[in-house]
Amino acid sequence: MLNRKPLLGLAAMSVFSTGSAFAIPPDHQDDKTGDVVFSASVESQCGIEATEDQADLAFGESYNESHATVKLVSNRNGIKVRAEEIKIESFNGQIQKGDVFFQSTGTTELDQSAVSWESGVDITRDQIREDNNMNLFARVAVDESNLDASDDYEVKTKWKIECN
């Protein structure tokens, strides 16, 4: 006849050792959740792009409806926009830089002389977020009847932004 006591003892030890294989770590509170972290970095961006690079020039005290458009890009605190170059050579000395005026709409609403635009205009990040297109109108504060007849008058400008 078989002795059943050693078999029962062996069966009990195997249940005990199988149960200890599923131990939970001491810091783990709930084995039904787990953290997943997604991360990324945003590259710093700052720039200007002429999306409409030509417009008609107005004479006198009023602007016409034609305008150039520049797109401002900045995910920093803000920028300074300035007219880096203003070329008026086509007027052959009939006007000075102070006779040229630029009006902006969109990102910022300003109307000032070319000389003031050379110093620059500060624009905040919130203004850019609201509307990043700056429309530029140009006029020469001289009546066209005071200029020599010509089809070739132009004001060439280069616009630059300084990133803060």
Explain the overall architecture.
Keywords: Signal. With 164 residues, the chain is an alpha+beta fold. The protein has a domain of 111 residues. It is 18% helix and 35% strand. The chain has 3 helices and 9 strands. The strands form 2 sheets. Strands 1, 2, 3, 5, 6 and 8 form a 6-stranded mixed beta sheet that branches. The longest helix has 17 residues. The chain is rod-shaped.
How helix-rich are the residues, as a percent range?
Answer: 10-25%
How many helices? 3
Strand residue percentage: 25-35%
Low-confidence stretches: 15-20
| Strand and helix order | HEEEEEEHEHEE
Using only C-alpha atoms, the radius of gyration works out to: 36 Å
Strand tally, please?
9
Main sheet properties = 6 strands, mixed
- Shape annotation: rod-shaped
Distance from N terminus to C terminus (CA atoms, Å) equals: 94 Å
Question: From the helix content, strand content and strand pairing, which structural class follows?
Answer: alpha+beta
Average pLDDT for all residues: 85
What key phrases describe this protein's structure?
164 residues; alpha+beta; 6-stranded mixed beta sheet; 3-stranded antiparallel beta sheet; 3 helices; 18% helix; signal
